[in-house]
Amino acid sequence: MGTHITFKRPDGKETAGYLANAARGNAPGVVVVQEWWGLSENIKGLCDRFAVAGFDALAPDLYKGVVVPYHDTGAANAQMTSLDFMDATTQNVRGAAQYLARNGAKVGLTGFCLGGAVTIIGATKVPELAAGVVFYGIPPEQAAKPADVKIPLQAHFANKDDWCTPAAVDAFEKAMKDAGKSLELFRYDAEHAFVNEQRVAVHDRQAAELAWGRATEFFRKHLG
Known about the structure:
Blueprint: E1 3-8, E2 14-20, E3 29-33, H1 41-52, E4 56-60, H2 73-82, H3 85-100, E5 107-112, H4 114-125, E6 129-135, E7 153-160, H5 166-178, E8 183-191, H6 205-223
Parallel strand pairs: 3-4, 3-5, 5-6, 6-7, 7-8
Antiparallel strand pairs: 1-2, 2-4
Domain Dienelactone hydrolase: 16-222
Pfam family, one: DLH
Protein name: Carboxymethylenebutenolidase
């Protein structure tokens, strides 16, 4: 449904991504940030789904064409560890937001796993954004302090997550509340990456559909 495009980062460099456009011409935009596997078919499918829901969706390719097979967690971790998160957020993600905002549309940011962490960083660093939806990712506090979040956030976490543990989620929720920030937080009795329907071992359709409905409703409220 979508197409691979190139677009400019704020520093003028070209970068690539996957774009799916809504049927209407003046649609709001959503930047979709990949998991640690790369710009997978699952992420492209989510962009297509956002387009059907009425949003222009653009997923920047943070790994420059590399997509790690789902079984190879070592390679995925190596890719994520070597990623410059600040450059990815302030250049690739911000460039995608600027691309989607060029017709005056409001733009939101969402991401999964690695992309969830990037979404929180983006909420502190990317001025073009109007709202963010986080899926099971939290950055280190030195990368993004809850007190510096500038947009309303919605967040989805799994109770059986050994990366974004329930304790880490509790700490993030408390820090956001203490800072007086707007946060809707939902927990699911599911595994990390429960939205990824290509990963049968962890996918939870009921939780994924519930989270999807909440996310699209949140973006309609804040982006129009």
